[in-house]
Amino acid sequence: MEYPHGYTPLKPGGALLTKKLLSMGGEMKHHRVLDLGCGRGETAALLAEEYGAAVTGADISEALISECRKKYPGIPFVAADAEALPFADGSFDILVSECCFSVFSDPRKALREAYRVLSKDGILLLSDLWKHGKKSAGRGMVRNIYSRDTWEDMITGAGFLITGFTDARDALTEMYIQMIMDQGIEAAQRQIGICLPPEEMKSVSYMLLAAKKEEQIIHFAGGKDSYSSEIA
Q: Nearest 5 degrees, angle CA 75-CA 90-CA 127?
């Protein structure tokens, strides 16, 4: 899949909120970290320079990857589709993704790929939009703004155990208001990728989420001959 035309990755809260997300993942030094949807590489650089991680940046945009390689020549950057990652099983200890999964055409497939490339007990750190209430919504460049229940169903359905959730609505609100002041509401909605009426926008928030890869166990029925098969 490709980003919707004209979409510019945005990060509410900037580096401060990124650091808060990373704090939910524990020790980073010398760990293999994938920054999925790395954009212009700021988080990958932060991980390498301040956290001492062995980081790889991945993004579907060839143009952004080219820009990252020029700006941060010491970090490997790979053009990659989140729904078909070009990495072997268990390649990373931690996967970080900021405000990307709501843009993916098939986030469930991307989550399964995240599970696959993480090592045993690997950590998923994800920040993204979410919507209060039971129903998801979404029109425009952001394909869907999922409810918390839907996010949790997708993440646990991919094999993860959710270990942390923080509502970061204030960071989104601050960014959105500043964009409206700078550009007007229509331009701000186009840039952020959300085309919702004001009443629905009130229910849109931002989250920081941590999850741990669990071993998947398949149970086969068969009385005393039953057995389990572990897939890691």
A: 65
Element (H, E) at 115: helix 107-117
Q: Which two tokens stand for residue 38?
A: 């790395």
- Provide the strand spans (E) within the chain: 32-36, 54-59, 77-79, 92-98, 118-131, 160-167, 204-213, 216-220, 227-231
Please give the structure tokens belonging to residue 81.
Answer: 């589709």
In 3D, which of 57, 118, 117, 124 has the Cα closest to residue 87? Answer: 117
pLDDT at 66: 97
- pTM equals 0.79
Question: Residues 228, 219: contact at Cβ < 8 Å?
Answer: yes
Supply the CATH number for residue 183's domain: 3.40.50.150
C-alpha to C-alpha distance for 219 and 122, rounded to whole angstroms:
23
CA 26 to chain centre: 17
pLDDT at 17: 87
Rounded to an integer, what is the distance from CA 196 to the centroid of its chain? 22
User: Each residue of 208-219: pLDDT tens digit?
Assistant: 999 999 876 544
Say what the pLDDT of residue 76 is: 98
Instruction: Give the pairing type, strands 204-213 and 118-131.
Output: antiparallel
Task: Look at the chain and report how many structural domains it folds into.
Answer: 1
Higher pLDDT: 206 or 156? It is: 156
Please check whether residue 46 lies inside any domain of the structure. yes
The stretch 148-177 carries a mean pLDDT of 83
